[in-house]
Amino acid sequence: MPETSPETHVIDFRAAEQLLAARDPRGAIRLLDSVISAHPENTAARLLRARAFFLSAQLRPAELEFQIVLEREPDNAFAHFALGRTLERADRSEEALRHFRLAAALDPRPEFIEAARFARDTGDGERAPEDPHRDPE
Questions:
Q1: Distances in Å between the alpha carbon of 41 and those of 9, 33, 78, 92?
Q2: Which of 54, 73, 84, 130 would bridge 62 by S-S if both were Cys, CB 3.0 to 4.6 A apart?
Q3: Distance CA 51, CA 137 (A)
């Protein structure tokens, strides 16, 4: 196995971003596993891996990664929104609503507000079906 260095991890992280953009989340996860093993404190790598887990329908690992990000950055609106989408896909609408509301409160992006409003307006937390291959962004 080739020797790894900080530069190798940066290259792997950037390559994982490209794989995720090309809709290869499993390839991105493989690259990010080594980055996170070497740098477990790297929140950006964890957030990217959480997105990759989400896109590959690995909901429990995605949830765990988003939670780690939120432990470190409780004001990360995107992480709240993406965790909400993850919980929503896992049929946990009540838990998802909390994170949608937090995301909207932290950052009033239209998609964050819409997620919080739509879930609230229906009264039962139900939402229209989402495309399972759509990134939570």
A1: 13, 13, 18, 28
A2: 54
A3: 9
CA 109 to chain centre: 17
Residue 93 host element (H or E): helix 93-106
Q: Per-residue pLDDT tens for 71-82?
A: 999 999 999 999
Question: CA 3 to CA 8: how far, in whole Å?
Answer: 9
| pLDDT the model gives residue 71 | 98
Closest CA to 8 of 42, 28, 38: 38
Q: How far apart are CA 84 and CA 90, in angstroms?
A: 10
Res 117: pLDDT: 85
Question: Residue 113: which residues within 8 A CB-CB, separation 6 or more?
Answer: 104
- Would you say 22 and 52 are in contact if contact means Cβ atoms under 8 Å apart? no
Cα–Cα distance measured from residue 15 to residue 112, given in angstroms and rounded to the nearest whole number:
28
| pLDDT for position 68 | 98
Structure-token pair, residue 49: 């891996």
Summarize pLDDT for 50-94 with one digit per residue, the tens: 999 999 999 999 999 999 999 999 999 999 999 999 999 999 999
Q: How far is CA 87 from the centre of its chain?
A: 11
